[in-house]
Amino acid sequence: MHKKKATLFLEDGTSFEGVSFGSTGESIAEIVFNTGMTGYQEILTDPSYYGQFVVMTYPLIGNYGINHVDFESVKPRVFGFIVKEVADFPSHWRKNESLTSYLLQHGILGIAGIDTRMITKKIREKGTMKALLTTNSLTSEEALKRLESPLSNDQVKQVSIKQPFTIPGRGQRVVLVDYGYKQGILRELLARQCEVTIVPYTTTVEQINTLNPDGVLLSNGPGDPKEVIEAIPMIQGLMQERIPLFGICLGHQLFALANGANTEKMKFGHRGGNHPVKELATNRIYMTSQNHGFTVTTKSIATCPLKVTHIAVNDGTIEGLAHTDVPAFSVQYHPEASPGPNDSRYLFDQFIQLMRKEKEEKQYA
User: Residue ranges of the Carbamoyl-phosphate synthase small subunit N-terminal domain (predicted)?
Assistant: First the structure.
C-alpha cells in the first residue's frame, strides 16, 4: 500500500521526512513530547493539548486501536500526532477502529517513520518550539517563513463549553469550571455521588453563587494561565466567601495567580504517566500523570497566603498548594488520570471532606 509523504519542520531549521497517517494538509503548532507507553487515545482527546503537536516517545503507537469508551472529550484536540511506528492492524477486544482512521475522520495530521528519539532530545535541549507538519511539498525556506507567524493564545476559549449544564446527583453540589476539563474529572465526581454543574470559563462569581454550590473545581486546560484573565476575580470572589476550592493543572496555576503568586513557562514541561511527586507532610512519593508546560514559581509563594504541599521529585517544581486560611487547595498533576496511575484519586475524597466540613461549620456558626 502506497503511503503519502509527510514532513515535519521545526522552528530551529531541522526537518524530518516520514509517512503520513490520518488526514492530509498542513498545520502549525507548538511541539511537545509525552512519555506514556499507553493512553494515546486519552492524550489525543485531552483538551489541554489543544494547539499542540504531540510526540510519543514510546516507539509503537496504535496497537490496541481506538474504542468509544476512553475519550477525555468528544473529539481529538491535538493539532498533530508524531510517532516512530503506527500500528496499521490493531488488535483489542474493545477496538472500534484504527488510530489512522480516527485521525482521518477528524482531520488530524499524523506522521510516522521518523526519529522521535532525536526530536525528544532536541526539545529537551532547546525547549518547546513551533513546528509545521505538512503533506504538501514545501522547501525549508517556505516552512520557516510560515513559522514566523505567532501562535494563537485563545486556547481555553476554543475548548470551553458555551452553555452550562447539570448532571444530577445526591451528594455534594459541585460547580466544575471548564477551562478544558477531562471526562476523568467528571467521572471521579460522579463516582462520589456529586451533583455537577459544568460552566464556561467566563462564568462570574455572582453566577456561580446562584447555583449555591458546596464547592468549586477549577479544571485543567491548555495554554498560558496569564491569558485566562476572567478567572482571577472569580476565584478571588469565591475565596472571600469561603467556598471550598480544588484546582487541577491549569486550575492550580490560576488558583496561584489569584493569590498573588507567579507562573512561568517551563523549558519542555512535564507530560506523561510516570512522574514522581513528593507529599511534603508525609514524605510519601506518588506516581502521577502530568501534562503541563507552565509552573508556579517557588520564589513567588513566599509573599502569598499559600503553602507548598507537593513537589516534583525530578526537578523540585511545585506540584501542590494549599491556602493557609481559606478551604482551598490545588495540584499541578492529574489525580483523575486514565489509564493511570491511580495513586492520587484520594484527593477527590479530600475535596468531598473539605466541602462537608465547611458546610457543617457554616451551619453551626
Answer: 4-134
Asked if residue 48 belongs to a known ligand binding site, the reply is yes
Q: Report whether 269 belongs to an annotated binding site.
A: no
- In degrees, rounded to 5, the angle at the alpha carbon of residue 152 between the alpha carbons of residues 149 and 156 is 170
pLDDT by residue (tens digit) across 143-190? 999 999 999 999 999 999 999 999 999 999 999 999 999 999 999 999
From residue 171, alpha-carbon distances to 116, 196, 207, 353 in Å are 46, 9, 21, 12
- What SS3 class is residue 40? helix
Q: Which domains does the chain have, with CATH numbers?
A: 5-146 (3.50.30.20), 155-363 (3.40.50.880)
- Residue from 15, 27, 3, 18 nearest 109 by CA: 27
Residues 6+ apart with CB under 8 A from 229: none
- 279 is annotated as an active-site residue: no
Catalytic residue among 42, 194, 249, 304: 249
Q: Are strands 195-200 and 173-178 parallel, antiparallel or unpaired?
A: parallel
Question: Could you tell me the pLDDT band of residue 2, with boundaries at 50, 70 and 90?
Answer: low
